[in-house]
Design a protein that fits this description.
The complex is a heterodimer of chains A (263) and B (258). With 263 residues, chain A is α/β, with parallel strands linked by helices. Chain A has a single domain (32-54, 79-243), classed as P-loop containing nucleotide triphosphate hydrolases (Rossmann fold, 3-Layer(aba) Sandwich). Chain A has helices at residues 45-52, 75-82, 100-104, 106-111, 116-129, 146-158, 176-193, 204-210, 237-243; strands at residues 7-16, 19-29, 34-38, 60-65, 68-69, 85-88, 164-168, 196-200, 213-218, 221-227. In chain A, strand 7 (164-168), helix 7 (176-193) and strand 8 (196-200) form a beta-alpha-beta unit. The longest helix of chain A has 18 residues, at 176-193. In chain B, helix 4 runs antiparallel to helix 6 (138-176), helix 6 packs across helix 8 (194-220) and helix 8 packs antiparallel against helix 9. The longest helix of chain B has 39 residues, at 86-124. The radius of gyration of chain B is 21 Å and the shape is elongated. The N and C termini of chain B lie far apart (49 Å). The chains are: A alpha/beta (263), B mainly alpha (258).
């Protein structure tokens, strides 16, 4: 008898206007596993990630966490589910109007009565674990470098110890050294929490560092999924072209889809 | 001919669809105003931003409007020897009409634009999605406090603007036109009724709600990139200004004769 996957996507579809972005995504992620989704720009990686925690509602298919369907319940059920997730966004998405300590403890303070002093203590402990100086907590996001913002975003995502972490291009826009540091921090944090992670990345060096398993999305479906160490011998021309960054090959750039349907 | 009718139909459907979205947005936002948890810190921040930081612009606008009104009404009324009604005209015009409308238009430019730009930027930089992932409802955290703050603050701003506008008329009346200060003041208060002031304040509350609603709505549905945020900001100010003028007539007509 096989264990129930932590995350399971079955035939997930999503269309924006006339643009069918997801045409049937099938994925399984085991508990504690680190899956990285790769693919060309506009292939539907971010939409897949946002479907996972309900930011986008799929048109069809099924998404299960611990074997339980996440769509179909009410708003409260979705909010309960989201408490099990932590997420970082490509450009940090830190709240500009709040200092770092309020950013880091944002969800904790929504969920429980925390004094300002206690919240600040938690923020200091979290950011110092990620290699930032304690005084950073009184600064605002705009005062920090890109690498520091990524660390703060990671701190915010892990502050209340979620079971599942979603990372949207955690090293994009960073120099290789800072990118490597962020990867190390992610690996450490994930090991400490025992979390299951799904990451989107274009940075193949980063993929090799953080992934247990890699899935390549192309034309709205999973083209290849396998162990990270099998990535170079997949035998799939698209995977080979993408992994080695080749200009010539079966993959062509597609425009990013316009996302609609808010509120 | 057929394409002409199609265009009319398409325009009508687009308008009705936009109206439906806006109505739905308003209903959801108003519901969240009365639903816990309440974000007091957000509300206080908005009250300070709308109420306190708009005071200079509203004060200057109403001051000079009161002054101009005194000069213009004197010029007109002097033609049929009714100069002594200047004080009454100034106070009624400012409290019933100019105070709320000018304050509303100025706040629409200042606050409507800033709300649309702030929320629009949050939209395009994924901060609104981040709120969702942090178990916080964006409508409740971002929109509801702004609507409430706008509805609360505008009447106070207009009340202060009324006093400043009447004072502007007084300065011109006494120091430029040579009215006796005591007579000018007594003329100011003689025909002023409490309903004149309350009508202005009711208008102000409606305008405050509409300004915040337009700022939040256009920011929340902002398009991508700087261009999208820029367009949202423009749309917020233009639509708020138009709605102020339309609702000004509707509220005036509703209370006509009061």
């Amino acid at each position: 008898m096989t264990a129930t996957p932590k995350i399971e996507l079955i035939g997930v579809t999503k269309t924006f206007g006339d643009n069918a972005v997801l045409k049937g995504i099938d994925l399984q992620v085991a508990a504690g596993e680190s899956l990285v989704i790769i693919g060309t720009s506009g292939c539907g990686k971010s939409v897949t990630l946002k479907c996972l925690n309900g930011l986008i509602t799929p048109d069809g298919g099924s998404i299960k966490i611990d074997g339980v369907e996440i769509f179909g319940g009410d708003r409260a059920a979705m909010e309960d589910l989201r408490r099990r997730f932590g997420m970082t966004f490509q450009f940090g998405a830190l709240f500009d109007s709040l200092p770092i300590w309020e950013n880091v403890t944002f969800r904790l303070r929504q969920r429980q009565k925390l004094t300002k002093a206690a919240a600040r203590d938690i923020a200091v402990a979290t950011v110092t674990d990620l290699g930032l100086a304690p005084h950073v907590i009184d600064q605002y996001p705009a005062e920090l470098s890109g690498g520091m913002q990524k660390r703060v975003a990671l701190a915010r995502a892990i502050a209340d110890k979620p079971e599942i972490l979603l990372f949207d291009e955690p090293t994009s826009g960073l120099d290789p050294i800072t990118g490597g540091v962020i990867d190390r921090l992610i690996i450490d944090a994930v090991q400490r929490l025992g979390a299951t992670t799904v990451t989107i990345s274009h940075d193949m060096a980063s993929v090799r560092r953080i992934a247990d398993k890699v899935a390549m999305v192309h034309n709205g479906v999973i083209l290849w999924c396998g162990d990270v160490k099998d990535m170079d011998k997949s035998g799939v021309p698209e995977v080979h072209q993408f992994v080695h960054g080749l200009a010539e090959g079966p993959l062509t750039q597609t425009a990013a889809p316009a996302q609609q349907g808010r509120t | 001919m057929l394409s002409f009718i199609q265009n009319i139909g398409r325009t009508a459907l687009t308008f009705l669809s936009a109206l439906g979205r806006l109505t739905l947005f308003s209903v959801i936002a108003v519901r969240w105003i009365f639903t816990p948890p309440y974000y007091w810190q957000q509300l206080l921040r908005q009250i300070i931003d709308i109420g306190y930081y708009s005071l200079p612009v509203v004060g200057l606008t109403t001051l000079f409007s009161g002054m101009v009104l005194a000069l213009q009404s004197y010029t007109g009324f002097a033609r049929f020897s009714a100069e002594d009604t200047v004080a009454t005209v100034v106070v009624l015009s400012v409290t019933r009409e100019l105070g709320p409308v000018l304050a509303g238009l100025m706040v629409a430019g200042r606050i409507g634009a800033s709300m649309a730009a702030e929320i629009g930027t949050m939209r395009v930089t994924d901060q609104i999605d981040a709120l969702d992932t942090l178990s916080t409802r964006p409508m409740q955290y971002l929109v509801a406090p702004r609507l409430l703050a706008g509805t609360i603050c505008l009447p106070f701003l207009v009340l202060i603007g009324d006093v400043i506008g009447v004072f502007g008329g007084y300065i011109i009346g006494v120091f430029r036109l040579g009215f006796n200060p005591a007579i000018y003041l007594s003329r100011t208060l003689e025909y002023l009724e409490i309903s004149d002031v309350t009508l202005g304040l009711i208008k102000a509350a409606v305008f405050g709600f509409l300004i915040a609603l337009m700022g939040c709505y256009h920011g929340y549905h902002s398009g991508r990139g700087a261009e999208g945020v820029g367009r949202a900001t423009t749309n917020a100010v233009v639509s708020a200004s138009i709605l102020i003028l339309i609702s000004n007539y509707l509220v005036t007509a509703l209370f006509f004769g009061v």
